[in-house]
Amino acid sequence: MSSETHAAPLIEAVGLSVSYPVPRAAFWHRKPAPFRAVEDVSFSIGRGETLGIVGESGSGKSTIGRALLGRVPLSSGRAVFHGRDISNLSGGEMRRMRRHIQAVMQDPYASLNPRMRVADIIAEPLLVHGIASGSEAHARVAELLDLVGLPADAGARHPGTFSGGQRQRIGIARALAMEPAFIVADEPVSALDVSVRAQIVNLFRDLQEKLGVSYLFIAHDLAIVRHVSHRIAVVYAGRIVEMSARDDLYATPIHPYTRALLDAVPVPDPLHRRARQTTIRGELGAIPSAGCRFAPRCPLATEQCRREAPPLVAKAPAHLAACWNA
Ligand SMILES: Nc1ncnc2c1ncn2[C@@H]1O[C@H](COP(=O)(O)OP(=O)(O)O)[C@@H](O)[C@H]1O
Ligand SMILES: [Mg+2]
Question: What's the pTM value of the predicted model, to 2 decimals?
Fold first, then answer.
């Protein structure tokens, strides 16, 4: 996994921010401020590169993915694909863009229509976009089934007859049908049995090697992204707190939150593990209105942290972190 091949960015997030409206508690109450789910997130992903995004549940990972897919309005910033701003495309332009940017979602049970045959599920995007039909679409489906490691007769069956891992293969085949340059894989193995996770992660890697596709690969723990990512961004409460090449992150984590996440990766010695897990307290709760969002849980927090949000800056070559004290 060399990094030289990823030089030219394929997709970029530039200061992405997304807010969700918060409903009034009652009609006579003042309208609350919107919830800032993602704030000022910037990164770029090269061709054939995987950026892993890690953070606990509710930290804004899916929202970042949705922002790149054009599925949620941005409150500021932009998404750039091949040098082109894709954040405010018209309906028709967005549909054409969808060919190049696809998604694989977490739940392979909910995302496949149980009444459709697998061949029709995979062929649907080809037909919708007028790319292939009839025998051509049929041949393409056969090719895709083979590519994701499903038997040729799978096309005639319905999703309900497959295991979770196989369903995720179907979801991947459907995403690949359009030959996208970029795939947002949003926790694609989190809902699967531990025993099949590695197979699906390896499939993502093999497909990238064969097809040169780029991924934003979302997970809630560092163990899974390690196997697919070239670079990793750690998010906390909607902000990137650390970003670096994969090996740098595991070898020399900088941000106290990353360190805490790494401590939570199971280590063989259970006594050792218990001893190491005391570094982080509490859970993702109310976000402080000023200062570092991690400060309420941070063992290193000082007065400055509660006053002023630390910028994401290089602490070592190509290794960014947002912390005043690390
Ligand atoms: N459609 C929505 N409306 C309001 N709040 C939302 C919506 N989607 C997500 N959120 C909130 O935004 C935050 C980030 O959500 P999400 O991006 O799904 O996080 P993650 O994928 O990391 O679990 C969470 O607090 C979640 O409750
Ligand atoms: Mg999510």
Answer: 0.92
